[in-house]
Amino acid sequence: MGDERSMAPEIVLIGRSNVGKSTLFRHLTGKKVRVGRRPGVTVSPARVRLGNTVYVDMPGYGFMRGADRISQERTKDFIVGYFEEKVEEILLAIQVIDAGSFIEIADRWEGRGEVPLEVELFEFLSDLDLAVVVAANKMDRVDDPDKTLDGICELLGMLPPWRQWRDNIAPITAKKGEIEPLREVIKSTLQRRGG
């Protein structure tokens, strides 16, 4: 008989370092994981089982102050491998972004002729045929929420207005516990799955 834990459907949180993944994970699961004051502290996935579902907080990716390029690449390779290996078990991928800086960072990458990491990750998860919701975190720092969320949609290849994508875009402020739009997506995903 196989490991029962590995057979449970997973809801996986993924995102750049320092976007609030671990804070969001704590709000979703009620379990505190090691959260650091600096990016890149979560170095291996944290796993919490709630009912029949396992929530997974993946390590942050992208630039990490104090981490060399090899460590950053190793983290990226680990994340890609995890999703490819677990694709059948992943019920929902929650891609956490910093809504306040997302468009600026994406514009900077595109200005260099590169695909922004967040866009690349979203496309990768979508190509795996996973259900993906973008948790647009730190909405309390955004001056014009609709304009920002429309811009995020456009960068991710979804036609604005963002409100037609409520199963794919969830505006939240994890630090303040304002995560209801994401809870709704999770709830409907679990209901569809019968969990």
From TrEMBL:
Pfam families: MMR_HSR1. Signal peptide: none annotated. Residues 7-192 form the EngB-type G domain. The keyword Nucleotide-binding applies. Keywords: GTP-binding, Magnesium, Metal-binding, Nucleotide-binding. Gene3D superfamilies: P-loop containing nucleotide triphosphate hydrolases. The keyword NADP does not apply. NCBIfam families: PRK04213.1. This is GTP-binding protein EngB.
